[in-house]
Amino acid sequence: MKDQSSKRYLWVTVLNVIITAAEFIGGFLSGSLALLSDALHNLSDVASIILAFVANLISKKHKDAHKTFGYRRAETLAAYTNGVVLLVISVYLFFSAIQRFSHPEPIEGRIMFIVSLVGLAGNLLSMLILLSGAKNSLNARALFLNMMSDTLSSVAVVVGSIVIYLWDWTLVDPVLTLAASIILLKEAFEVTKDSANVLMETNPDIDLEEVERAVLTCPGVKKIHHVHIWRYSDDMVMLDAHINVDDDLTAERIEAIDQEIAVILRKKFGINHVTVQAECERGMNEDIISSDVDD
């Protein structure tokens, strides 16, 4: 799996370097802002892919005394960084397109068309290479969405180059750039939001009342409180909670209850790392979400 991920990142990097060089040259020769904006986007893709590749390697490292949870969040950090960079680029492209409306420039449609076909082929191939890994990794998903937006942008640039070549309507160039920047802004916001939610240890849309009802089905459990649920990484959802039990239960029975709770939460909610603290009377009047700052 590690070798497959590495190969995917390598091939996509090579393709994007080729696309970037072709579009920068073609953009300057043709005078197309759409090509130059696409080249700038692809240049950021190269940096994003390298960052994602490094993060993927780091995430495979084993736990140690300094990182007792391991290094899986390296990929989440990479996805967040890529998202922020894409937000900045989309805003830059948006204002560049606005300025081009008031200062139109002549564009060579034939050069724009040839180069845009190169960009389309490279972006489409990159998207297909990343497709298989996008289902299980937020980092890979960020890159896949990036490649998908590049592909859509390349399709628009191809169409725009045809329009410019046939009818010499150069305003289609900033129109395409404007549309691409808006699409990119939306996708970058989603990736940034999702990765930020992981970093902020946000509850991944698990109903706490359902969790409470499920836990209370375990014999011997009277109450659950001080519950924390968060997604640590793409494949790990964690729960930390306190439960109230009878004061005459043995340690062996409490351990069995912990195991029962872990099985229920994994099967019903996909929570695969459970830590439960058993108590007798303490916390009986507490809510499922504690209002205390330190709990």
UniProtKB/TrEMBL annotation:
The chain crosses the membrane at residues 9-33, 39-58, 79-99, 111-131, 143-167. GO terms for molecular function: zinc ion transmembrane transporter activity. GO terms for cellular component: plasma membrane. Keywords: Ion transport, Membrane, Transmembrane, Transmembrane helix, Transport. This is Cation transporter. Its main location: membrane. It is a multi-pass membrane protein. It is found in: Membrane. InterPro entries: Cation_efflux, Cation_efflux_CTD, Cation_efflux_CTD_sf, Cation_efflux_TM, Cation_efflux_TMD_sf, CDF/SLC30A.
